[in-house]
Amino acid sequence: MSWCDKLASVPSVGFGVEFHFAPSETILLALAPMLDKLVEGRKPTFEFDKLEVFAVGLNTNDGFKYGVEPSKASVAFNHRMRPKAVSGGPPVMEMLSQPQPFTSLLPVVSQKLIETMLLLPGPKGRTFNRYGIVSTTPVDADEMPPGVKKMIEYFGRPWGKLAGGFSIQVTADVGKGNNYSDRCVHTVARAENTDDLMTIMFDYQRVFTSGQPITMSNLKEVTSSTERAALKYFEELAEGHRFDEIEISEPANA
């Protein structure tokens, strides 16, 4: 089982696409076939959270958050709740989304993004040049994976340890292929109130050297191959072996 599953991480995925400034009306018209399916009975099961000149964002009741902008398209999973009236008592919160393991949700959000990409408005031959997978994990300090603990300890060594709140962000190259390079943006943050959960975010990105065609077969190949690479890398980070033999010199005396 992936550590992302154990800690109830949530995924988001996105494509960086060639710029095209379609007005929001055009975007909505293009997405209409997808929106037509988001109905239960006679009620839509989504709501807009962004409607700007060149951008559209919507959130479905079952927890899928879509975004379309001039240079990117994304789908993320987020937990959704709403108050429900109860006879003879105060309202209770009802969970609308279905919690699932990270590795089960990831291919679902990827498939929804592929469907969105194939509907995007734009010139014939529009291409994409980047695909990213983000793992977001709120976690108690005592339940952090060993690798994340080692990362925090490593960055705190010049001062003994990191005290109070902190925000660490590091971007590193992690792989390369014939026509792409992989990098990961690592973010670990804790609020000043140490009772709050820590947030761990790993953003794995595959960046292509040239524009890639937006076709069903190509989108499926890119999402599946990047998914394998990202999950493998996330597990390596969790295990923490990358930090085992790293040494840091003592700070120079003033």
Alpha plus pi helix count? 5
Please indicate the percent range of residues in DSSP E strands (runs of 2 or more).
35-45%
How would the global form be characterised? globular
- Tell me the number of structural domains: 1
**Chain-averaged pLDDT:** 90
**Helix/strand-derived class?**
alpha+beta
Distance between the termini: 48 Å
The strand order across the widest sheet is 4-5-6-7-1-10-13-12-11
Question: Which regions have little confidence, pLDDT < 50, spanning 5+ residues?
Answer: none
Element string (H = helix, E = strand): HEHEEEEEEEEHEHEEEH
Please state the oligomeric state of the protein chains shown: single chain
Number of strands: 13
What does this structure look like?
The structure is a single chain. The N and C termini lie far apart (48 Å). The protein is 26% helix and 39% strand. With 254 residues, it is an alpha+beta fold. The longest helix is centred in the last third of the chain and has 24 residues, at 216-239. The strands form three sheets. Strands 4-5-6-7-1-10-13-12-11 form a nine-stranded antiparallel beta sheet. Strands 2-3 form a two-stranded antiparallel sheet. A two-stranded antiparallel ribbon has the order 8-9. The chain has one domain. The chain contains five helices and 13 strands. It is globular, with a radius of gyration of 21 Å.
Provide the fold topology.
Layout lengths: L2 H4 L3 E8 L6 H12 L3 E2 L2 E2 L1 E6 L4 E5 L3 E6 L2 E6 L3 E6 L2 E7 L6 H16 L9 E13 L6 H11 L9 E11 L3 E11 L7 E16 L2 H24 L15
Antiparallel strand pairs: 1-7, 1-10, 2-3, 4-5, 5-6, 6-7, 8-9, 10-13, 11-12, 12-13
